[in-house]
Amino acid sequence: MTIYSNQILESIKKELKQLNINLNKMIATENPILYSAAEQLFNAGGKRIRPAIVLLVAKFIRKNNDISNEQKRLAEITEIIHTASLVHDDIIDNCDTRRGINTIHNIFNNKVAVLAGDFLFAQSSWYLANLNNLNVVKTISKIITDFAEGEVQQGIKTFDNRISIEDYIEKSFYKTASLIACSCKATTILNNSNLDIQHDFYLYGKHIGLAFQIIDDILDIISSSKNLGKPAGSDLKNGNLTAPLIFALEEKPELNKLIDQEFQFNEDTKKAIKIIKNTNAIQKSMDLAQEHIQLAIHILEDKYSKKYTKDLLLISYYIMYRIN
What we know:
Layout: H1 2-11, H2 13-26, H3 32-43, H4 49-61, H5 69-92, E1 97-98, E2 101-102, H6 104-107, H7 110-129, H8 134-156, H9 165-190, H10 195-222, H11 225-228, H12 234-237, H13 243-251, H14 255-260, H15 266-277, H16 281-303, H17 310-320
Antiparallel strand pairs: 1-2
């Protein structure tokens, strides 16, 4: 994972450094509590994988590999939108830590956290409007609608053991893949690329996003709380039934009892994780993620010169091998 990430980040190292500087400027507000909440989020770090993808796509489609100021701003907007969604996710999931530090609602309260998330969405919308590109505005605005759709779908299927892999993939698209897909497409729009290229990179982002979410859900089962930056098994505890559990149910129907009990005891979550690990569910989930990675790679290799797709291929492998 480190090898892939170092190689990827090297080509956009300067842009990512400036992105981190700009993010703090973009969340400026006269309200000290809102600013403190927003600053806390960005100072917590994170992989910046979403803006990195935007920057790499921008670099790839530009004639001289130079990223335009508008595309750099889009990368920043993408990260602000993502961060805003995390604030609301943490409230809904009652998550106490994120990236190893206390969550906003845990430091302040739910009201401040909701307002901080809303503030970030509002700031992203303002900067988006200032790109002065209606098609980009339409494309990126769809992300926020999809976030809401994903949360509703997740909410109505909490602890629902009838959820299918198809349901899970649809929800994962709304909650994760839509942001990456639409951001990739918007990057090509800013470059005045034709509709075929816009569609290709929308699909590339969609499959990368789905793979990213599946790997995240595997890590929730097999990683430690220290590595995750949040409690392991939090998806199970919150009733968010993900690919590993859905596949495990096919082999171990006794998991249904724990789901029906809504993992009410701490030992229930540990027991469920142990059962899942003793099935083929993790491997099946990895195969599903690999399928989406291969679909993303196929788009690049089928239509574009391999000479210029190195970084985009590397980020595809990086997402897959975060698990190692």
